[in-house]
Every structure is written in C-alpha cells, then in structure tokens.
Amino acid sequence: MRVRAQMSMLFHLDKCIGCHTCSVACKNLWTDRDGAEYMWWNNVETRPGTGYPTGWEDQEHYKGGWHRDKKGRLKLILHSKGGGVAKAFYNPALPELDDYYDPFTFKYGDLFSAPPSEQQPTAIPISKITGEPVEISSGPNWDDDLGGSDLYARNDPSMDGVDDVVRAQMEEIERVVFNYLPRICNHCLNPSCLAACPSGAIYKRDEDGVVLVNEDKCRGWRMCVSGCPYKKVYYNWNSGKSEKCILCFPRLETGQAPACAHSCVGRIRYMGVLLYDADKIATSAALPDDELLDAQLDMILDPSDPQVIAAAKAAGIDPGWIDSAQRSPIYKFVKEWGMAFPLHPEYRTEAMMFYVPPLSPVMSTIEQNFVKLDIPDERRDFELLEELDKARMPLEYLANLFTVGDSDRIRRVLRIMLAVRTYKRRQSVDGVIDETTIALLDDVGITENMAEAIYSMTTTPTVQDRFVLPPYHREMSLEDVGDPLTAKGETGFGFLQSPRRGA
Amino acid sequence: MNTNDVLFGVLPYVAVTLAIVVGVVRWRRAPFTVSSLSSQLLESRKLYWGSISFHWGLTIILLGHLLALIVPRGFELWNGEPVRLYLLELTGLALGLWAAFGITILIIRRHTSARVRRVTSPMDVVVLLVIATQIVSGIWIAVGYRWGSYWGTGVFVPYVRSLLWFQPEPDYVDPLPLVLKIHVLAFFAFLAVFPFSRLIHIITLPLQYLFRPWQKVIANREPPAAEYVSNNPRTKQLQ
After folding, report:
1. Is the distance from CB of A191 to CB of B215 less than 8 angstroms?
2. Which of A95, A360, A366, B156 is most deeply buried (CB count within 10 A of its CB)?
3. Do B37 and A501 make contact, defined as CB atoms within 8 angstroms?
4. Candidate CATH numbers 1.10.238.10, 2.40.420.20, 2.40.110.10, 1.20.950.20; the one for domain B3-210
C-alpha cells in the first residue's frame, strides 16, 4: 500500500442552479488575459447538450483518454510515444478555436466617439483576437438551457445507448428536460494529458494531487489538449504555452477553498482530502469497462482504518491531513453513502472530482388539457421511488455520464435521495415517522442516522462542513526548497518574469 | 582581408557563437519564451498542408547535408554508379520542392489568415525570409548546377572542415557562383537568427519522451518526513 493524498471536489448536481457564478469567479481570477479569453477552466454546461468545447465527449474525434487494447494493456488513444514525437509538426487531434468559440467583445469606444446623428450609436461586436468585426455564431454558454434543442441536445454523445422512444419523448416540448454539469479539471490519478506531454512539462503534485503545467518546460506541442478526454487543458495562442485549472492551489495553500467552490451560490460544491492507494493506479485503470468504477472507488482508503493511518504516516503524510481526510465530506458522499461518482470513468484517467446525480421531475401526460402525473394518487407520497424509470432525465443518460452505463447504480443514489426527502417530510410535516418510512430507509439501504447525516450535509452544511481544508504547512515547504532566512526581506517569489510571448 | 574572407571566414564563427551563447542564455534565463509558438489552434487546415511538408522536407534535406559532411567518401562511392547519382539527386530535388511547397503555403497562411497575422512577429517574417532564401537557392543549385552531391564533397566538405578545425579557408568558396554563396550565407543567417527567434524550438524536439515513464509525480520532500533534514533542496521524482 502506497498512500497518497488527493484534494478532491464534489458537485451536488441536485443543487446546481446553473448561475455560472463559479465560471465568472474563475475567469476573473485566472483567465482574463490575452490568449486565455476563450478558456473556461471552470464551465457549466447544459445537459443533454454538446458541451464545451463542442462535442468534447466524442473521443473518436478528439482522441482523449486511455483505452484497453486487445491484450488488456492500457494505451493512450492519442498516440504511442513514437507517434507523439512524429506528430510534433502537426497535431491531427487538436480542437480548433471555433470548437470552443471565437472570443469577442464590443467596440464600446464607438458609443463615445460617434458623431451626432438621428440614431443611437451602437457598439459592434469585434473579435478579441483580430480586432475585426465579427458575426457572432457562438460564445460562452451559447447552448445554455437549450435542453431539447435539435442542435445541441440531440447531438449529445452521451445520448448514445438511450432508448429511441425515450429520446423521442425528450424532444417533445412538454417533456424537455435538462440539468447543469459544472466541470473543472478532474486532477486525475492517471492523467492522460500528463502522459501525452512530450516535453514532460505536466506533473502531479505529490502533496495534494493537483495536476499542473510547468510553463517554463512547456514547448507548445499541444498534445495535452488532445490527450485530455475532458478537454480541460487549453492552449494559450498568445504565450504559446498550455494552461489548465490549478485547483486554485495558491488559495488552498492559504486555507481558502478554490474560487469556483467558494463563490458557489447553490452551495453545491464540497472540498476535502481523499487518501488513496497509489499502487493500484496502473492495474485498476486497465480493467474491463464494467469493473472500472468499482476499482476506482476501491482505491480510496478508509482514513480511520489504523492500518491506513500507519501507512499514511509512513508515507510522510502530515497528521493534519489525515485528520482532515477523516472529516472529508467527499469521503462521506463517495464511500460512506456511495452517492457520488466520477465523470466518465470509462476514460480510465481516474478522475477525482465527484458528482451526485440529479433528481428530475416524473414524466407527466396530458389528459383533457390537464397535466397528469403518471403516478396513482394513493402513492403520491412515495412519488418517484418505484417509478424512477419515468423520471424525465433518463437514468440511462445519467449512467452514460457517471457509471459507464450502469443505470442501477444511478437508481440506487436517486432512491436514497428520495428516501431522505420522504423521511424528513414525515418528520417535519407529520411530526411522526411511521413504520413505512423506516421500512423505506431500510429498503434503500440507509439507517436513520445516515438519513439525518445526508440531510444535514446536503441541506444545511456550513462553510466549514463543506470545505474541510487540510493544513498545507507552507512554512515547511519553504524549508524544502531553501533556507527560509535567505529569503528574509524578499517578496517571497524570488524572481518574477512577465509571461511575455517568445519571438 | 577582403569581403569574401569576412563573409566566409569570420561570419560563420559569429553566427555559431551567437547561436550557442545566446541560445544557452535564453534557455536558462527565459525558458518561458522557448516554445514552438504553434498557431494551429487559430488556423488548422492550411497548416496541415504547410507545416508537415515544410518540416519533413527540410529536416530530411538537412540530415542529408549533414551526412555528406560526415561521410563524404560514402557519397562518392554511392555516386560511382550514375543511376544511383540520379536517384540521390532526384530525391534531394523532390524533398526541396516539397519543402518549398510547404513554406509557400505557410507564407500565404501568415498573410491571409487574420488570426495568424495577430500572432506574427517581425522576427517570424525574418525567419520565413531566411529559410525561403535557403530553399529557393537550394533548388536553383539542384537544377542549375547539377550533381551537387558529386562535386559538393570536393568543394564544400573541405571548406566546412577548415571551419571546424579553426583554420578557415574561405578561398574554397571564392570562385563559386553567386547562388551557391547565397545558399551558404543563408545558412549562417539561419544560425545567427536561431537564438533570437522561434527557431530555438528546434532543440526542444522532445526525444526524451520516448524514454520517460507515462506518469510523473513530483514531491518536495522524500518520505518519511520525520527523517528529513531541512535546508537540503531535494526534489524527488516518484514513479
């Protein structure tokens, strides 16, 4: 057992309201620069939809992630090592700018400099790259809320495998459904961007698992952009270097949650430490598709297990981190309650950001101009529980996103969430919890204590409950790279160069 | 010392010194500026036709020149049979034309794509001019002064060797036609421009990728932390 720590984030999709505050917080902090204006290290996409960049899940086109070859070995979809060097002159799997969108702004100066005239002056849209007028045809969140659209929802790669009848229903205007999917870099355990980087500029930090690009070593071969199946590494056309989400590590190191999580209006995001067994990475990523998810979740270790604690200490993990891992809300959701999954585990990168799948309303039918739920009246209280297959968001679709197509696992999570709801409703409205409700909890496999814990972590968590941040001990890290006394009186960075484009 | 001596006896040393000294300083002091500066994100279709032809054509031709310099005897022996001489010359010409096709597209692309123009620096224009001169003069020689792989070993190899042994003999080049001189001078210009331009990406060709493990985890300190002695800057690469 080789214990390592990973800073992990969890997204409770049932709470996401799609306000994009996270995206804006991130943009203002990190990507408000020339060459980075088209990048959204954090983006929120409407699902079903094609996402950002358009159709990023279509790996036959974009070649991201790993696959298991016929002999059961783990291979990059993008290239072999020799192929990676041979393709240095042209990367055939690189998304183009228009796959993201042409960044634009408006010529606001015209509003002030226009000569007097009958009409109000207008600010025409111009490209942020060329400065020339543009016809805007796409932009950030161009497909926002277009759940049933022909252009976006219908072309969602994850709709493959969803029953044709269900698909047809979803395109009817009365039954259109969508939910939001916030995405940041998954800071994977088996990152394929890192493996694809010919320069060796990308690395995973040992202390917290954050995957970073060393900008001084990056030579702009752009293989990481293609290699990442989530398309969360971006090429800065101005600096000629690749960039990605850094999980706000400067904030984490000073005890603050990442900007996206901190600013989250719906409070859907949780942060915490997970301990995992690094010895299992290579084997678990090479398993057949149906074993992938279990293998990945099995790698996560119980931080209260004395053996794990001893191994963690032996691996040099700070006691503060172990303590933090024991209180981690991510561990609770992922392991204790089994309610959260990584996004697309079939990409075999072992993504470490987790998602609680969202509930959706039950399908309704229209009779005599009245909307009627497809549920007998006497069972209204238990609503969806037994009728989850009638949920507007098809379980198969959610399963394609989170559980390699296993809709039973999604069903189990949604049933837990519904059972907790019913339990709390009985408790707060009726004042009594009857035996049927207790039986219901039993049926979905949770206890009353668990129901209470899930309820309070979902509905009423404080900032400290949601963000259990470990002590980074920067004072000790400083000692690792030099004598702290020599840095006395310096700014702390040693030297700084402006990130100017080379000639 | 006449002009010929300066151009072919002094200039090569200036160019090589610039390439090495400035190259090393830039690599060490401003590594952020070292990049292939790809513009594929902004324009991909023309780049496909331009970049692949240009890079492969030029790289193979350059390696051919280098080979002639290292084993001139081998070239002479190979060319002993006329058929093989024709084959070699034709291959060289074809590669030159391939590279010329590539650079033509790249120049057109820089000129016509507004997005690519945005990331075009004056130095990029210089680089394109120098390399275009190199390619055009090379093709000219291949057509106008045929069988270069045959006579080149007798003219250029002694000249370049004289440079390498620090006993420059620019007189070897003096009687040659102008276009041959231009071809040689363009190479010196290429070397001189190399450290100041994007050409520096040539030495970043990531051959080390072939030998590194797939994954890379970097730790500040070696575990276990308890035994660690501070003030000792160690960076251990795990896995």
Report:
1. yes
2. A95
3. yes
4. 1.20.950.20
